[in-house]
Structure formats: structure tokens, C-alpha cells
Write a structure and sequence with these properties.
With about 80 residues, the chain is mostly helical. The protein has four helices and no strands. The protein has helices at about 5-10, 15-30, 35-55, 60-80. Helix 3 (about 35-55) packs antiparallel against helix 4 (about 60-80). The longest helix is centred in the last third of the chain and has 18 residues, at about 60-80. It is flat and about 45 Å long. It comes from Haloferax namakaokahaiae. InterPro entries: DUF8006 (IPR058319). Keywords: Membrane, Transmembrane, Transmembrane helix.
Length: about 80
């Protein structure tokens, strides 16, 4: 476990949108070994909602547009997955 002071001092240099984007990339890379397009689609939908619901006051507006794009791409990934 990392001490909270180390995590806090790291996150002070970035805004919430950048931190969420980093977590999205990490979770997508973490789900790749599962080789499930449905899980990647669900992950994309969830992070699209998170980016869309993040207030613009604490994140830049372009993360809102990223959320919209992820909400469009996520269901497409989920539906086109093989069973």
C-alpha cells in the first residue's frame, strides 16, 4: 500500500480529468488479458458516464466530449462482440 501523502502529492499536479483518463487506460489495459470485447465495452460505457457526469468546474470541457464519444463507442463494442 502506498501512503496517502504520496498519492496526494502526485495528484496535485494533475486535474480530475487527467486522473480519470489514466484510470480508464489502466482499467482497459487490465481487461485486455481477458480477451472479452464485452468487458471492454462495459468499461468504456462506465467511464463514458463518469466523464459525462464529472462537473466542468473541476475538469476541462473536452473531457465532457470524451465522455460522449465513449458513450457512443461503448455500446458499439458491446453489441458487436461475439458471444
Amino acid at each position: 500500500m502506498l501512503p496517502l501523502q504520496l498519492i496526494d502529492s502526485f495528484l496535485l499536479n494533475y486535474n480530475i480529468g487527467q486522473a480519470l483518463l489514466f484510470v480508464f487506460i489502466l482499467s482497459t489495459v487490465g481487461a485486455l488479458p481477458l480477451k472479452s470485447q464485452r468487458i471492454i465495452g462495459i468499461n468504456t460505457i462506465v467511464f463514458g458516464l463518469i466523464f459525462l457526469l464529472t462537473p466542468v468546474a473541476i475538469a476541462k470541457p473536452h473531457y465532457l466530449f470524451l465522455g460522449i464519444v465513449l458513450l457512443i463507442a461503448g455500446p458499439l463494442l458491446y453489441v458487436t462482440a461475439r458471444r
